[in-house]
Amino acid sequence: MILQMNDICKDYLQGKMTVPVLRNIDFSMEEGEYVAIMGPSGSGKTTLMNIVGCLDQATSGKFFLDGKDISKCSDNQMSDIRLKKIGFVFQSFQLLPRQSALDNVALPLCYAGVAKKERRERAAAALERVGLEDRMNFKPNQLSGGQKQRVAIARAIVNHPRILLADEPTGALDSRSGEQVMELFESLHKEGVSILMITHDPGIASFAERIVEIRDGRLKSKEAEAE
Amino acid sequence: MLENIRLSFQGIWSHKMRSFLTMLGIIIGIASIISIVSTIKGTNEQIKENLVGAGNNNVKIQLYQGEGTYWMDGGIPNGVYQLSQDQKQQIMDLEQVENASFYQERSYADGISYENTTLQGGTILGIDQNYMETCGYQIYQGRMFLESDFEQVRKVVLLDDTAAQSIFQEEEPLGKVIEIKGEPFTVVGVVKKSDSFQPVIQSMDDYNTYSQESYATVFLPNSCWPIVYQFDEPENAVVMAKTTEDMSIVGKEAAEIMNQSITNTTDSLSYKAEDLLERAKSLQDLSRSTNSQLIWIASISLLVGGIGVMNIMLVSVTERTSEIGLKKAIGARKRRILAQFLTEAAVLTSIGGLIGVAAGIVMAKVISQMSKTPVAISVPAIVFSVAFSMLIGIIFGLLPSIKAANLNPIDALRRE
């Protein structure tokens, strides 16, 4: 079990009102699984993603990532978990504009204290894995949207994370580049990488092995509905 | 750390104009401090050099009545005698004394003439054999006094170049006979003060200090002195100290020895050293205290510069919110973000400090050219300035850096 959530609730304080965003979420993922979470905007899917990504703490409930109880972690421990166990892919790529593709990919290795030479080798290997070996020294503004997202994916996998979290990975891409990104996810999945993807696009969600729907802060599994 | 510094340079370089404007406050502050410190140091060195004379270290000890030099109207006052051989030897034997000479002096001497020319307002000195060496005179024409001149009381004189010029104009002075109060004296040589003993005169104050020395001077062997002036003048001393720092003490000790022979207690007569070093110090203190106020004013511009840095860093943190969010999301700890921004602020202000030092040196040179005052670049001041500007970066960068480090990555990433 790569990830397990028991009765997770998350409330936000809006002025003096407490707004519940996630309600009693029970969710788990097997190692190597490829899951899509679907839901309209405001359904709480991003909040769920933030909790899974150790960017946020749940208000109540238990959350285990790779067997570790995250609800008891300090800020620095959460940073280290994000560094070593999670790879993020964002809708808007989030590349550092002044750094080359190679430096962008090497950034997490830098935080992990990897020596410079090894950093370059591993970053180069990750770029090769996403098919951008000929774009290593390009700056983000010299790359197309699809290429940027592939650099971002290379950065996400360079530390060999336990799970890849993708938030609307094709949201800012045309359908052709979106397909390429999906093919890449597919092949990463085949290599055994666990992937959790958020999307509101059913077409993109259909690439996943399992689709979970979220609505008003509550989960319902597609399979469960079908039964 | 090196990585952070490299990134800082990259960041600064990519916003050249903004970075430069941010640094400007620091540059101006540091430049003013460097130029002020250089000017103070230059002025102080000049004051010391002017008053004390580089390579000279001479202290004059003269008879004073109260606060002023004794005015020899009616000859030597009662109770003051010529110095004994023993007193002279005691002074020569003082530990910090390099050389000493004893002489009689009459300023505004009259009755010095050659044919139809009369020397106006000259000074006559009756000197011993050490005088020329102690006071740094060199022979220019003819010869110095010989031991036999003193022993045989030969009526010979030496002229300094000013005196030779005004008495003889174009004529050859050597071998000519001049009259001093009707007594004939043969000119045996012309002397000149060697350059290192020449004071630098750049102001009215300097002029007053040295005016006496730039008058025409005629030298007699002291054994001849009574022929002209009997014993109308007290004996003075000029003592050369081994180092400039010894001058005050040497002057005091020599004056004390000379005072032993004064028996007159009613007219407040005493030998006193003309303490140039003390005067130099008080002048230096004066210039230092005026200028230290200037340094405080310059420091205010550093403060303003620091606030400017803080302001820009805060803007930069806001601008780079998503970058910070991303870095935190992929696993950078708070400390790393803090270090990154602190390094950036410190690098920024250090570069500002370096440019400021360069600008300050240039400014000091320009000031010295324009106002004809010397400057001396102070290395400790440069090191201090650069270190201090780095410190300003760290202090004023702290608030923005803490703000960056504490950004919530979720909020930071949401802002596009």
Please describe what this structure looks like:
- The complex is a heterodimer of chains A (227) and B (416).
- Chain A is an alpha/beta fold and 227 residues long.
- Helix content of chain A is 36%, strand content 28%.
- Chain A has helices spanning 45-52, 75-85, 101-111, 116-129, 145-157, 175-190, 202-205, 222-226; strands at 3-14, 17-29, 34-38, 60-65, 68-69, 86-89, 163-167, 194-199, 210-215, 218-221.
- In chain A, helix 6 (175-190) links the parallel strand 7 (163-167) and strand 8 (194-199).
- The longest helix of chain A is centred in the C-terminal third of the chain and has 16 residues, at 175-190.
- Chain A is globular.
- In chain B, strands 1, 2, 3, 4, 5, 6, 7, 8, 9, 10, 11, 12 and 13 form a 13-stranded mixed beta sheet that branches.
- Chain B has 2 domains: 2-50 and 282-414, no CATH class; 97-240, no CATH class.
- In chain B, a hairpin with a 2-residue loop joins strand 1 and strand 2.
- Chain B has 14 helices and 13 strands.
- Chain B has 416 residues and is of the alpha+beta class.
- Chain B has helices at 2-14, 16-52, 85-93, 131-134, 147-151, 161-168, 204-214, 225-229, 247-259, 276-319, 321-329, 334-371, 379-405, 409-414, and strands at residues 58-65, 68-69, 97-109, 112-114, 117-118, 122-127, 137-142, 156-160, 177-180, 183-193, 217-221, 235-241, 269-273.
- At the A-B interface, helix 2 and helix 3 of A face helix 1, helix 11 and helix 14 of B.
Mean pLDDT score of chain B, rounded? 82
Helix and strand content put the structural class of chain A at alpha/beta
C-alpha end-to-end distance of chain B: 29 Å
| Largest sheet composition of chain B | 13 strands, mixed
Short description:
Chain A has 8 helices and 10 strands.
Name the features.
A: alpha/beta, Rossmann fold, four-stranded antiparallel sheet, 10 strands, B: about 425 residues, about 20% strand
Task: Compile the SSE list and pairings.
The complex is a heterodimer of chains A (227) and B (416).
Chain A: E1 3-14, E2 17-29, E3 34-38, H1 45-52, E4 60-65, E5 68-69, H2 75-85, E6 86-89, H3 101-111, H4 116-129, H5 145-157, E7 163-167, H6 175-190, E8 194-199, H7 202-205, E9 210-215, E10 218-221, H8 222-226
Chain B: H1 2-14, H2 16-52, E1 58-65, E2 68-69, H3 85-93, E3 97-109, E4 112-114, E5 117-118, E6 122-127, H4 131-134, E7 137-142, H5 147-151, E8 156-160, H6 161-168, E9 177-180, E10 183-193, H7 204-214, E11 217-221, H8 225-229, E12 235-241, H9 247-259, E13 269-273, H10 276-319, H11 321-329, H12 334-371, H13 379-405, H14 409-414
Parallel strand pairs in B: 6-11, 8-10
Antiparallel strand pairs in B: 1-2, 1-12, 1-13, 3-6, 3-12, 4-5, 4-9, 7-10, 8-11, 9-10
